[in-house]
Structure formats: C-alpha cells, structure tokens
Amino acid sequence: MADDARTYLQQRFTQDAQQLRERVAQLRAGHALPGPDAATSDAMATACDTVVAMLEALPAHDEVEMLIRDLLALVPVLERHAQNAKQPPVRAVYTGAATRVREVTSAEQRALQADDSDEDHAT
C-alpha cells in the first residue's frame, strides 16, 4: 500500500512523457496539431522524465506516513524547477507535479485518518 501513491504518480508522469513524445513524432512527421511545437513538447516530456526520476529516487517505505513525508519533501524541489523553467509549458509540468503530489498526499492522509477513526470505533 505504501508505494501506491508513488506508483500512481510515476505512472502518470511516465504516460504524460510518452504522450508528449508521440506528439513530437507526429509534429515532426508534418502533422499540424494545436498546442505547443515539437521542441516545447519535447522539453515538457523531459520535464516529466525528471519528475519520474525524482519519484524513483525516493526510498521505499512500509509505512504510508514515511512515504507521505518524502513525497511532500518533493514539493519545494518541484516548485524550484518551475521557477527556473524558461518556457511556461515546462513550468506548468513542474507546477502540475507539485499539485498532484499535494493532492495524492492529501488523499493518503485522509485515508490514514479514516483508518485510524475506524480502528478507534472498533475498540
């Protein structure tokens, strides 16, 4: 259970990178698509890869609380990446990652509190 939040985030940003790279291939093949150009889409995919690498670098934990702590520690790092990004779409990748981490950890914290509450009522 402790790896579910991290696994979800890894899969999400891995899929985003794959979709962006598919977009790059289509744009380079001459297909006109709305949205960012090939170079920007490629930079966004690289940003997604960076997010995945950060998530993969987190230590494995058996306790959800420890995973939540480590995930939340990524938020300021992601925000610094966003501040340093020169392209707004790349900045959005990092800002979005920070938002997703907050959402996922919040959901995990609520689940822990519900589990604790259920245990308190069972005794």
Q: How many discrete domains?
A: 1
Radius of gyration, taken over Cα atoms and rounded to an integer in Å:
17 Å
Average per-residue pLDDT, rounded, comes to 92
Proportion of beta-strand residues:
under 5%
Structural class: mainly alpha
Q: Give a short account of the largest sheet.
A: none
User: Helix coverage percent of residues?
Assistant: over 70%
| End-to-end separation | 24 Å
State the total count of DSSP E strands.
0
> What spatial form do the alpha-carbon principal axes imply?
elongated
Work out the helix count. Answer: 4
What is the element string, with H for helices and E for strands? HHHH
Q: Regions with pLDDT < 50 over 5+ consecutive residues? A: none
How would you describe this structure to a colleague?
The protein has 123 residues and is an all-alpha fold. It has one domain. The protein contains 4 helices and no strands. It has helices at 4-28, 38-57, 64-84, 88-122. The longest helix is centred in the last third of the chain and has 35 residues, at 88-122. The protein is elongated and about 60 Å long. The model has no long low-confidence stretch (mean pLDDT 92).
